[in-house]
Amino acid sequence: MKCPLIINGAGGRMGATLVRLAQSDSELTLAGVVEPSSRAQGLEGLGCPFGKSLGEVLKTVKGAVVIDFTSPEASLGTARLAAETGTAAVIGTTGFTPEQLDELRAAARQAPLFWAPNMSVGINTLLAVLPELVKKLGPAYDLEIMEIHHNKKKDAPSGTALKLGECLAEARGWELREKACCCREGIIGERPREEIGLQTLRGGDVVGDHTIYFFGPGERIEVTHRAHSRETFAQGALRAAKWLKDQKPGKLYSMADMLRV
Ligand SMILES: NC(=O)C1=CN([C@@H]2O[C@H](COP(=O)(O)OP(=O)(O)OC[C@H]3O[C@@H](n4cnc5c(N)ncnc54)[C@H](OP(=O)(O)O)[C@@H]3O)[C@@H](O)[C@H]2O)C=CC1
Ligand SMILES: O=C(O)C1=N[C@H](C(=O)O)C[C@H](O)C1
């Protein structure tokens, strides 16, 4: 049976990509689209229920999985509605505060919820192997992350950079929030050994680049992931929706749970 899908933020960069790919996916039915802004143009002609809020569309469409790439506030609204109605939801939004992430985890006890700051197979496989590299290189290597995104991106550092940072920090037995350095300016002194730098570049239409640097004595390793298209993230989210419809509430699921990496 086809999996019915509602796309929240359907007029956005990710939303529009998801609508296009979902329409040609033989395992999915586009069951509803939501967009509150002027970017809704064209969505009403898709042949499925359209609304300016998710609550409105959920009243007419039952049993669908929601995919949400919007804003932290809007995605929290989605998580609350999902918890109230037992609706499964895949969230790709980034920029949540730690408290907002706790709220997502709490909502995941009531409904199947999935959140990943990056839905690509590449980044999530990298996250699985990075700890080994950190441990094998040992403490003499300075760890730095650089991310580059398009000039419309609202949050920094990117959700992916923060996730990579958490992964590196955990491999060193650190807490990222205690070791992260997101800005350097002025007479900053020598680099502390126990630090992870997270640097942000913004410009043009860059889809999403992340580089992890391992600076050692006399050498360095650079590991770079470049997303060539938003379709990479959208395909990951569609795969997550199909997987999530068979999962039970209880935990906030991630790409690692689905990919088993
Ligand atoms: N996990 C991943 O793999 C990826 C995550 N992202 C993240 O996804 C998010 C969206 O990115 P992107 O598509 O580029 O952003 P866009 O701004 O292009 O799209 C977001 C859309 O959501 C709409 N929106 C805002 N509030 C609501 C609401 N309450 N209900 C429904 N829709 C709403 C926006 O409308 P309006 O224009 O009025 O604000 C906009 O159309 C960001 O947090 C980004 O970092 C992006 C790519 C990949
Ligand atoms: O806003 C984006 O575009 C992206 N956001 C995600 C992030 O913050 O990591 C993922 C991807 O890099 C694109």
From TrEMBL:
Instruction: Outline the extent of the Dihydrodipicolinate reductase C-terminal domain.
Output: 122-259
Active site: residue positions:
149 (proton donor/acceptor), 153 (proton donor)
Top-rank EC class of the record's enzyme: oxidoreductase
* Listed GO biological process terms: diaminopimelate biosynthetic process; lysine biosynthetic process via diaminopimelate
Please give one Gene Ontology molecular function term for this protein: NADP binding
Pathway named in the protein's UniProt entry: Amino-acid biosynthesis; L-lysine biosynthesis via DAP pathway; (S)-tetrahydrodipicolinate from L-aspartate: step 4/4
Any one Gene Ontology cellular component term annotated for this protein = cytosol
InterPro entries named in the record: DapB_C (IPR022663), DapB_N (IPR000846), DapB_N_CS (IPR022664), DHDPR_bac (IPR023940), NAD(P)-bd_dom_sf (IPR036291)
Q: Report the principal subcellular site.
A: cytoplasm
For this protein, the Enzyme Commission number is: 1.17.1.8
Domain (Dihydrodipicolinate reductase N-terminal) spans 5-119
Q: Which positions are annotated as binding NADP(+)?
A: 39
Q: Which reaction does it catalyse?
A: (S)-2,3,4,5-tetrahydrodipicolinate + NAD(+) + H2O = (2S,4S)-4-hydroxy-2,3,4,5-tetrahydrodipicolinate + NADH + H(+); (S)-2,3,4,5-tetrahydrodipicolinate + NADP(+) + H2O = (2S,4S)-4-hydroxy-2,3,4,5-tetrahydrodipicolinate + NADPH + H(+)
Pfam families (alphabetical): DapB_C, DapB_N
Q: Does the keyword Mitochondrion apply?
A: no
Keyword terms, alphabetized: Amino-acid biosynthesis, Cytoplasm, Diaminopimelate biosynthesis, Lysine biosynthesis, NAD, NADP, Oxidoreductase
Record: residues binding (S)-2,3,4,5-tetrahydrodipicolinate: 150, 159-160
Instruction: Tell me the compartments it is located in.
Output: Cytoplasm
Residues holding NAD(+): 9-14, 35, 92-94, 116-119
Cytoplasm as a keyword of this entry, yes or no, is yes
Similarity section: Belongs to the DapB family.
Functional description taken from the UniProt entry: Catalyzes the conversion of 4-hydroxy-tetrahydrodipicolinate (HTPA) to tetrahydrodipicolinate.
The annotated subunit structure for this chain is: Homotetramer.
Query: What name does this protein carry?
Result: 4-hydroxy-tetrahydrodipicolinate reductase
Q: Source organism lineage?
A: Bacteria, Pseudomonadati, Thermodesulfobacteriota, Desulfovibrionia, Desulfovibrionales
* GN (gene name): dapB
